[in-house]
Amino acid sequence: MATAQITVSHPLATPNGSQPSATESPTISLLEPNATAASVKLDVSAPFSAIRTLFDHLYSHPDDATKLNAIYPRRGILKTAATIKTSSDQKFTIDLSPKRVALIPASLQESLARHGLKDVLDFFNTLTTEYYLQHELPSCDYNPVTAASESLNGCGAHTDYGTFTIIFQDGTPGLELEDANAPGSWVPVPGDATVILTGWCAVILSGGRITAARHRVRRTPGVRRLSAVLFIAPDLDVKLKPLGGIQPTRPFSETVMRGDIDTEVFKEVMGKRWRYREGNEEMEGHEVGTQDDEIAKLIWARGRV
Ligand SMILES: O=C(O)CCC(=O)C(=O)O
Ligand SMILES: [Fe+2]
């Protein structure tokens, strides 16, 4: 495993804008088998006991789950498709984002506070206000009790849409990375690693120099696993194009080069297939391509998929 000591010198990259001392520098270790994922030591950890408490409370108090889902009626906050669908990802999620958190009424925040929500939101606030990392923060519960309790499929193989993703894990293995040089070959990630993965926004911004890390989560039947995932991406109205001065490694589509695709459009294209995999949205009969095919069609020049 290659290990690099990285000094973070940008003031926004450290809490309160302070410059890090040598000992505060995060240690980043590239995870085998490729350079699209790294394990990083951060001085912030996810509150897994609060995350567990919050999931358990919402499972056993459907009224509270209904109230929470009502703040975002379009898609809900607590996703439980795995209780009824056997072919989708066998996991549950609580999907938070700054926009959604702002919509939770004070009374609901207060009543859920002692059932884990306070610590989850504190963690969220630390990430967004001290580390300036924001976008979306789903918590995942690979719970042994699902519609297909013996299934090994926790989260199907996929790539993430953002610039990068940080995955906090509760110590339980299950996350795997695909070997970019040997598609179909999966390498387990240690369960206690905090992982940074590259996503598709990084592919576009880097002019194709960075590739998106394909990953998945395998379950161990009977074993519960929790994770907290932070998707970091440009603001929704940012036009996604190779950054100025970068010579793309392969031609991008006219649509990308004209600046017609902003993060919101891109997220919507990826999100549909994502929700299908998670069991939260049906797919029209003719929509048969994989998520990566769909993105490739959109971003690369024709004939170069
Ligand atoms: O739960 C995990 O460890 C990873 C989940 C994931 O890949 C995702 O939500 O995009
Ligand atoms: Fe992912």
From TrEMBL:
Residue ranges, annotated region (Disordered): 1-26
Keyword Oxidoreductase: yes
Signal peptide, first to last residue: none
Amino acid composition bias (Polar residues), ranges on this chain: 15-26
Gene3D superfamilies: B-lactam Antibiotic, Isopenicillin N Synthase, Chain
Chain ranges of the Fe2OG dioxygenase domain: 123-234
InterPro entries from the UniProt entry: IPNS-like_FE2OG_OXY, IPNS-like_sf, Iron_ascorbate_oxido_reductase, Oxoglu/Fe-dep_dioxygenase_dom
Keyword annotations from UniProtKB, A to Z: Iron, Metal-binding, Oxidoreductase
Keyword field contains Oxidoreductase: yes
GO MF, one annotated term: metal ion binding
Annotated family: Belongs to the iron/ascorbate-dependent oxidoreductase family.
Name this polypeptide is given: Fe2OG dioxygenase domain-containing protein
The organism of origin for this protein: Aspergillus novoparasiticus
